[in-house]
Predict the structure of Circularly permuted ATP-grasp type 2 domain-containing protein.
Amino acid sequence: MTPTTLHAPLQASSTGLLDHYHIPDFFCELMNRRDPTPPVLQCVKDRLAALSLPELRRRTQAAEAQLYRMGITFTVYSDKEAIDRILPFDAIPRVITAQEWDHVERGVQQRIQAINLFLHDIYHDKNILRDGILPADLVLNNANYCDAMVGVDVPGGVYVHINGTDLIRDDNGQFLILEDNARTPSGVSYVIENRHMMLRLMPDLASGLPIRSVEEYGLRLHQTLCEVSPEGVIDPQVVLLSPGIYNSAYFEHVFLSREMGVPLVEGKDLFVENHRVFMRTVSGPRAVHAIYRRLNDDFLDPLAFNPDSLLGVPGLVEAYRRGNVTLANALGTGVADDKAVYAYMPRIIRYYLGQDPILQSVETHICAEPEGLAYTLANMNRLVIKPVGESGGYGLLIGPHATQKELADFREKLLADPSNYISQPVINLSVTPTLCQDGVEARHVDLRPFALTGRSVWVLPGGLARVALRKGSLVVNSSQGGGSKDTWVMAS
């Protein structure tokens, strides 16, 4: 939506939606900002205050029923009770001002530029390792380091074409980078579908506000993949390679293939001949030039990696190494989003760009280093301790919320395999008003902006706002009971 005239608030109900909202001892992104409230944010507050709780519940129930009918679901493999479930949707939007977004956008762009330079370097000259900016063992012995990428020149020097950067806000409302997702980041489909749902569900709340659109993501993604296709190809054929219907993000694979207007394929639909990739079609083989792959490295090619994989394409890696097809994201990008490498990102940015980071990182202690392990062991009850190879909120310990037994058990894990862990201080994540069982309450949120890199870096104006629906919880991941909100980035 692009109109810039703010409409008057709705006619207030007898019991306003925010009448009993308790502002906690955290930074509330809607209610207790330190600076004077921007007019656009005040307008949203006034309109929310005019809604009643029963009306919001009615609209939310209708939205969740529609999400399920549309098949907008994800899979929790550890849940034996249910295979597919909807991502709980909260109808109270998260609002980010134009000034705040400008800061986020520039910080994400800077970070991705540095990540791509870092990946090129570690697969070529390794200058950053020789100069001692970070330990060589941390990179070269990393489980995600891909020997097949050594010496390979990728189009435009772009390794991370699609990136999801996880951000949080602290007590002062400052955005901090929590982690990078440089392999196969997921969740952008919810960003777009949440907006569609929000405009159907709450047109009176959104009317006239200068909300930036998220509709062009599919077009931008296709354009990006065309820009990084092999040189000399005039009309590149792009495909989206999926593991198949049983993958947890299969809905997103279908969604993005439609948004881009490209075929959705599985490994069995592709083959390699003379080091070139082809797609099987009813009219015969068709050359493929760029593959947006949603498979992990190990499953892409049974000739190069896991010989038991039935999901990949035999010969794909050699075709890629010869420059006959582009893979997005490139092989071996997992080194850049490793939780231990994360601790060195400020140094990496300064090394390659000669700039201070625009977005700060969370203080991180690397347990593989004696000093980091000693600090972590001495402060377990005050830290969040994370395994470097896990995602989705699994395997971590939140010290202040842990029992003595949990702390003792985790201590044994740390001592047994310190290189598998990093620790960080507990950050008081910002909160936003969220519809809960007992009414509108404060819940912690994070944000995952998505960025596309071809000839330049473009950041989708918004992102996946994940909300911890359980009271007091800091874990926002969908697999751990979290939900999502629509993110409104204002144009002015």
